[in-house]
Each structure stands twice: as structure tokens, then as C-alpha cells.
Design goal:
This protein has 354 residues and is mainly alpha-helical. The protein contains 15 helices and eight strands. The strands form three sheets. The protein has a three-stranded antiparallel β-sheet. The protein has a three-stranded antiparallel β-sheet with strand order 6-5-7. It has a two-stranded antiparallel sheet with strand order 2-3. Strand 2 (40-41) and strand 3 form a beta hairpin. The longest helix has 18 residues, at 332-349. It is globular.
Length: 354
């Protein structure tokens, strides 16, 4: 079965998955450590990744050179605002920055959670009390909404990963902060009109680096209900192996190999040559720590999500409220108050708090 980083430890704790018993030749330690740890529970691996990602900054080198902007490997959000103002040119169909606005726990809240983290906020304190209506959240959300309203494309509240990918690849975005997987797509001449004009940098930070770039994997696991668990494990081992990656490289080229899974891929000179973004992607993934997603201690793991079953509902509800603020249906203060109260009710209803 296909499973994500969010569900894997939750399902493992409920004994819905079989722990994987992989041969030494599989080389489990070659799996990039944060990706591997995100697919584990109690030091047992329950899924193996066929794709992994963090987040990073994409920018138009030609526009930045024209504006006299030099981008460091680690940008900051104040710099993002300044750069967006310089390259924003809607009269010529170019918007300063594209960001996720489409509501959803895995859409706008994927990005917004990292923004809140680096501004010093988090979802819950150590007693599982929601911490949404706090100064750090207010500062982060006000920054996000102001940035998109001034320098984002029209209808930003409808744009998720796919919509922003289409905007950037057709030359309509000066910058974009999103999943590292987009690097290969944007660099493909068959899919991108700006393939030769893209610069890459780490996801921006504000006060704290913790949780400023997310971590995710799509993976394969064997459910406890499998009627052929041995055959299933044999398949998942093959489909995520070094040999499979080499097969893809031989048939489709190095840039097409599954990203974000194995250290050996990023150590391969052929991949480094085909993927100029490789080192930044690897550093981004390696620096993501799901056990320390915020400046302050948290009772949860996960950077752009919280590893409890209830988070899908909570994140989607808050995502709807943030989209309402982005479209002026709510003020920032109203959005935070509403999100705080709805999350408190949910946490009381599910027994996390009294």
C-alpha cells in the first residue's frame, strides 16, 4: 500500500502495519536519515520511501540579476518581502511571489505551518493546549497575507502546489517557496518554459531555523491484513532499492530518478551533474527534524503536520479559516480567534485537554 509520513507512525502505533525486515543488501542506512526516521516507530521501520521531499526557494535568476539581487544559500523572510517588491511586475504578467493559498492541511497549512514555526510559533504547547491565537501566529499570518496581497498572483486562495507549479513554469512567478520535488519538474525543458532561468536556495527563515522547511515522504508499506506479506515486502524492497533507482536512471535519465530517498543518489556524480539543485535538496531534507519542529518543545512530532489522527480535521478547518482571511472575509485577528476556539473544542471533544 502507499502511505505518507503522517500516517505511517500513527498506523504503526495502532498495529495496522507489519514492521519491515529487510536484507542487508537493501542498505537501510542509505535511506536519508530524517526520511527513514519519519517512517519509523519505536526504532522499527514500517514503510520505505519511493519519494521524499523538503521545501526550498525557487527564483528567477534573470529577473533577480536585472534587479541587482544576490541570493544567499539561506534567505530570510524579510529578504523575500524586499525581493518580491523588486521583481513584481503584473503589467508584464510576473508576480513577485507565489505561495500556497488553497485551503487544506496538506495545502496552505503545509506552508503556513513552516512559516509559523520559523516566526516562533507552534500548534500546541506541552499540555496539548492550542497556541494559535498568539503573537507568533499573528505576526506570521499577517506577513503571509500582506505578502500575497501585495505581490502575489490574483486568486492566490485557489492556488496549491499544482497551480503554483503551472504559474512558475510558465514564467509568471518571480519566486516560489514549495516542495523540493518541483526542482526536477521546473528544470525539465519539456515541462518548463523557464528551465534554464531558475535559481535554488534553502527555504527562508525568520527568527528560528527550526521547522522552517518541511519533511514528507510517499512510501510503501505492508498492512497487517496482507494475504501475501512476503511477496509484498519483496516488492516494496525492490521498488525502493538502489537497483531500481539505477534502472530509472538508465531508462529515463538521472534527473528522473526518485528524489529524496537515498544518500547514494546524491553522492552520485552523474546525478549531481544532471541535477544542479541536488546539494540544496539534500541539505534541506537532512536539516529537517520532526522531533524539534518549533523554537519551543512540542508534545508532537511533524513539521508541517502534527502526528495525531485528529490533525487532518484540525488542519483542514484552520486552513479554511486562513483562506477566508486571505480573501478578506475575515481579519487576521478574527481568523486566529476562530481557529483557536475551534481547535480547543476539538481537543476537548477528543480528550486531549479538559
Amino acid at each position: 500500500m502507499t502511505i505518507g509520513s503522517y500516517e505511517t507512525p500513527i498506523w504503526a502505533r495502532r498495529d495496522w502495519l507489519k514492521p519491515l525486515d529487510l536484507a542487508a543488501s537493501y542498505d537501510v542506512n542509505d535511506l536519508i536519515k530524517p526520511i527513514r526516521e519519519g517512517l519509523s516507530n519505536n526504532d522499527k521501520l514500517y514503510a520505505v520511501p519511493f519519494y521524499g521531499e523538503s521545501s526550498m526557494l525557487y527564483y528567477r535568476k534573470d529577473l533577480f540579476e536585472k534587479a541587482g539581487i544576490t541570493v544567499p544559500e539561506q534567505p530570510t523572510y524579510p529578504q523575500i518581502r524586499k525581493w518580491a517588491s523588486k521583481v513584481h511586475d503584473p503589467a508584464h504578467g510576473v508576480y513577485g511571489v507565489c505561495l500556497r493559498g488553497k485551503p487544506g492541511w496538506g495545502e496552505n497549512m503545509g506552508f503556513v505551518s513552516t512559516l509559523v514555526n520559523t516566526f516562533g510559533g507552534q500548534w500546541f504547547d506541552m499540555k496539548w493546549q492550542p497556541t494559535i491565537n498568539t503573537p507568533a501566529w499573528k505576526e506570521a499570518i499577517a506577513f503571509y497575507i500582506d505578502l500575497l496581497k501585495k505581490y502575489g498572483p490574483p486568486g492566490a486562495s485557489s492556488n496549491g502546489f499544482n497551480e503554483n507549479l503551472a504559474l512558475f513554469s510558465t514564467g509568471k512567478c518571480g519566486m516560489w517557496v514549495d516542495a523540493t520535488v518541483a526542482a526536477g519538474l521546473l528544470s525539465n525543458p519539456k515541462e518548463s518554459q523557464v528551465y534554464d532561468k531558475i535559481g535554488f536556495a534553502r527555504a527562508p527563515i525568520e527568527r528560528y531555523p527550526n521547522g522552517s522547511n518541511w519533511l514528507w515522504a510517499w512510501a510503501l508499506a505492508v498492512p497487517k491484513t496482507s494475504k501475501s506479506p512476503e511477496a509484498a515486502q519483496k516488492f516494496v524492497a525492490w521498488a525502493t532499492s538502489k537497483e531500481y533507482i539505477q534502472l530509472v536512471a538508465n531508462q529515463s535519465g538521472c534527473v528522473a530518478v526518485p528524489p529524496g530517498t537515498r544518500t547514494s543518489t546524491y553522492n552520485n556524480p552523474n546525478y549531481q551533474k544532471a541535477a544542479p539543485f541536488a546539494s540544496i535538496v539534500l541539505k534541506s531534507i537532512q536539516s529537517a527534524d520532526i522531533s524539534r519542529p518549533a523554537a519551543q518543545p512540542t508534545p508532537y512530532k511533524g513539521i508541517q503536520y502534527v502526528d495525531i489522527p485528529e490533525f487532518q480535521a484540525i488542519g483542514s478547518s484552520v486552513g479554511q479559516t486562513m483562506a477566508a482571511a486571505l480573501t478578506n472575509r475575515l481579519s487576521v485577528d478574527q481568523a486566529l480567534e476562530r481557529s483557536q476556539s475551534s481547535t480547543e473544542r476539538f481537543m476537548k471533544h477528543t480528550g486531549y485537554i479538559e
